[in-house]
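Re: the pair you flagged

First of the two:
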Amino acid sequence: MVTATRGFPSLLAATVILLASLSLVPANHSASWDEPVIVTTDKELYIAGDAVQVNVSVVGPLFACFSSACQSFFVVENASGEVVYDLRKHYYWAQIPTCLCAPPTVNFLYTWDQKDDSGEDVPVPGDYTIWGFVAGYNQGDPPVAGDSTLISIGEETASEFALVAGWNFILLPLAGCDYFASNLGLAFGDAIFGWDSSAQSYDGAYVVGISPESADFALEPSVGYWIHSSTARSLVISGTAPPSTQNVQCAVPAQGGWIALGFLGFNSTRRASDVPAMYSEPGGIMAVVAYDAGLYEPFYVFDLSTDFELTVGQAYWVFCSASGVLTYAV
């Protein structure tokens, strides 16, 4: 099922709508505006069955008159470029005149339930491209395609990892988790802290049962977090297997700095010495530091004898001499 809303109502609408006037085919009689047409989604990674929020934005200023209520739509293609879902086949527009006289940007908001045109769930895991359109400028004109965005959909899976009493430096190894500090499963009084690599300071602090709702924050993929647990316990998280390649933006001050980094997936063959070659800036990574039960274990790029194996679900301090992108295969 698809729902659709717009960021604001049409300026002109008919007062009487006849059922017989409903049509799948948009027909517009005049429009003029400056592109681009932009399409975005609320996430990049989804678990099978999740609602996908689609936003088709038209950058104005614009003035457009339509002879139908259809002003925009989207289609979904699979990895082979085949259209698996076309909104026009499932959403009816009344054939009534509508006009837009919009500010710089107008947003058309839709929800896709991961069904194909026949009403079946789209195959997962899989990558899907969502294209945004606005209806043609003149009577009989074809729709105007905007840009597209790529999403990935995977089967839901679960992962369990252990916390020790005291400090833990962890990340969530699954993608599409949608976890916040408040719903991770920690006990009353347990605390979780984030790190701002640009400012080189802790950013975000949440104590379960004590911090206000405004202090809550989302847990991002490939990012490490500090958790202080009152007792040893296990956490079970749900998500989906991440895409095969991850690109992590690493922002540090001009003089360099530390990032809190972890690796998605369950690859247990990585070593600290593998990390420098993943970075876009040659020589940009100087050290990788592990934390375990109150002790730090550093790897220095100039001393291979300090190398160690990376652990799934564990986060690491990584010193970068410059900002860059860290790319790794899951």
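Second of the two:
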Amino acid sequence: MKSPLVFGTANRYNRDIMKRPSIIVIAVSILISQWAAGENLPTIADPETRVEFRYELIFDSDFSKPGVLNPKTGLWRRESMAASNNSGQHRQAEGRRHAAWYDKFWKKTASIEDGILKQRGFVADSSIEGFVSRDSGNSPRNYTYTDPDPKDGKSGEINFGEFEIYTSWFDTFAVKAVDGKQVPVEQSDELLPKDGYWGQPGKTDTLSPNLTFQPGTFFEIDVNFEGMEALGHRHSFWLMPANGEGLAYDDDPANGLEIDIYEHEMVVEPDQVSPDRKNPNEILLMKCIGQNTTPPTTKNELHPDGKTSIHSPGINQGWHKIGLKWTRNELVWYIDGKAVVRDRNLVPTVPMYIILSREANTGAGNSNDPHTLKADGKKIPFDAGLYGRNVATPANRKLINEGRDEVKVRSVKAWTLSPNPESK
């Protein structure tokens, strides 16, 4: 681990400039070159913010490094979302809101190629010998209904009893059940089969690196969305409270809440984007979700109307660095170094963990909201699990199986922040 980098400020330079002008020129040059290189520093455009803190790199998930996805030696845990304790609201059971599974076809849904993590969708169906959907039989999801599908005409036929969609989910923390309580999984725990674990000391049914973060951290991802095509298949980089109860939504934001560093998805076909409005496919959702807090979600202090849906032209071309500064007093979101969202109300102070997920769970009501695609609710049985039905249209399934829907990630990093005494 490299030592913290400390940079002085203009005030210090002003005091010394008459005495040691050559030294100051050199110092400024080093400062500029180090931030320009950006290898071990967060991407921050504002010079005052850059020198406000000392930055120490504490989490360096460079996907070109071997073993980075191994929870025993690396930095990530891969969620199965099948029978895990950690499924929470995403548990695959009656009432689930996810349309996707996470527990099979791992090589299909996420792989490291040429030092880059690629997260994709995968559709399992009758083309796989012996395949049987877990929604077949008497499941309320074994039901044929129609769904809008702009690539197939007026509607597409959907029946979750005939196929399963798979995506990928990585995080840095997990819990296990011991004596009726949820406690953190330790990196040293021995892995047992799901049916062989009942709370034994030093054992677990899911391996985890058990990495959490405190206020005073800057998070950053280096990501490329060029390959995203499937409507409603979301890519998210986010934080959740690291506690045994899995709670995130009481009335005090200090106790923890969900922090979406970003959520991003394709919401309309490219040829349906109106030239008279901002392209909804270029929006990043950047916010906290507190639910019972006041307010229940972030009101952006950097935008006149408080919006946290940030239009970012060009976000779907090339590589971008998206970051979050988290202190005990504020949260600030960044896109390629520019601060775009700030929240000084909903600020958690408890340990949090990172999640990097590909999800298929967009709501499908009768709303005009571009992030809520439409479906005919009268033809769909009551089941919250069908909340993500639009992600499963025939056109989406076809392009997923053609390999035309992926997100690339080069790295995820985190730095601790400590006040820079030289900035005073």
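The chain has one domain: 45-173+208-423.

-B.
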